[in-house]
Amino acid sequence: MLVAVSLLIQFALLAVMVFSFSEHAETFYWVCILISIAAALAIVGSRMEPAYKIAWLLIILPFPVFGGIFYLFIGGGRVSSRRQRRMQGIWDRSIKALAPDFKADDLLPLGGEAATQATYLEQRAACPAYTNTVTEYFSLGDLAFPRMLAELEKAQRYIFLEYFIIQPGVFWDSILDVLERKAAQGVEVRLLYDDMGCMFTLPQHYDQQMMAKGIQCRVFNRFRPVMTPRLNNRDHRKLMIIDGQVGFTGGINLADEYINQKERFGHWKDSAILLEGDAVWSMTVMFLSMWDHCAGLEENFDRFRPPAAPVRPWTGYVQPYTDTPLDQETVGQSVYLNMIARAKKYIYITTPYLIVDVATNTALCNAAKSGVDVYLITPHIPDKRYVFEVTRAHYPPLLDAGVHIYEYTPGFIHAKNFVVDGRFATVGTVNLDYRSLFLHFEDGVWLCDAPCIHDIERDFQDTLTLSEPITLRRFRHLNILLQLYRSILRVFAPLM
Known about the structure:
By secondary structure, this protein is an alpha/beta fold. The protein is 44% helix and 18% strand. It folds into three domains: 2-74, no CATH class; 81-318, Endonuclease Chain A (Endonuclease, Chain A, 2-Layer Sandwich), CATH 3.30.870; 331-495, Endonuclease Chain A (Endonuclease, Chain A, 2-Layer Sandwich), CATH 3.30.870. The protein has helices spanning 2-20, 25-45, 50-60, 64-74, 81-98, 112-125, 141-153, 170-184, 206-212, 280-295, 331-342, 358-369, 385-393, 395-401, 434-439, 452-464, 480-492; strands at 133-138, 158-163, 188-194, 216-220, 239-242, 246-250, 267-269, 272-277, 317-323, 346-350, 373-379, 404-408, 411-413, 417-420, 424-428, 442-448, 467-470. Helix 9 (206-212) links the parallel strand 3 (188-194) and strand 4 (216-220).
């Protein structure tokens, strides 16, 4: 709501500006036309996702007086030189901390599918693949919650938390109690949360309240009611790291609906994964990089390096990864596309939103047409009605290609999981929508031959029994107005 109000105010100011130039209306008009032409040419020639191009051109071309100016305000997405230099410095320190772990070639004996994915994440995202890491999958936030508390209680050196949404209640209050006690004991506790994600869940100056409790706290990308591309760049990651030895990630935010202590949209189906061992160091570097980005620091990451983990029996390969919208590399999308392309038997996907880009839609359709069993589970009870309609608008082409789509009837499924052929999987924060794939900071864990993959697959099969199959027949006799509404939403979905 605040975003909408701020944008309306700025549109009003723009109208006042136009009115004030009424004596030079013709000159102003032609200047705006030239700006719109330049913006349209820049969009066409950019590396932007095709759906973004179409959406922006449909705004600029019919409304050339304001469309180009509007694009200049929020559509450019250029990163300042100063910010680029700071990002490069953080990137260099991340590479230095993780380079000794770059061993993607070790996956070659497992086949080209494994090695190429690991190599991509290593070379393009500086995210190594690890062995000697125990993984544990949680099929519900309800199950992850007590384990999180237990692991936090074991902290001796530091606790790092990075979340999109935090809300006082059973979940967060229980964690905060542990954090306060640990901080009082001398454990270094750091908390990073997204300002937009917590806008309606936390009071103003909550970071100061945390500092008063001995908890270091930073707020990511503070909201300012100004039209800017940065407004869309949110920290959607979910990380909990204890001593660099234990790490959690997945779809779970720190609010009560995620552990079904509060019902909002029926039963909340989510997932999380625990890592214990060598791979947690990569997650630690991810957090420290984001912390330095927010705090303007240049820390020596090595001081947080944990002692060598005990050698364990074969645990498969575990590769935590992160994605940033501030570069040209769409890591989250590429991980999904690589997994789809290499599937031979089946692909199991859970996602709260199905607002797919052209490349992902094509990949899923081609896989299904090639004889791969592609199964998707989405929510039956939506958290956002218009997003739900856009999701359903994407069903027909997929169904027509042979993709099996189910809706989770007990409520809302928030898990973001992929399983391919029982050998590969990913659990993380990346939704199948434009915001996650192109605009947000995200993270995930790619798995190869890890024992927990069977648990993820079993959870998918169990969830399938609670879900309703969607058939193409349902879409053939839809109300014409609903079809039009969904078509419009689908066109402008990249900008929502």
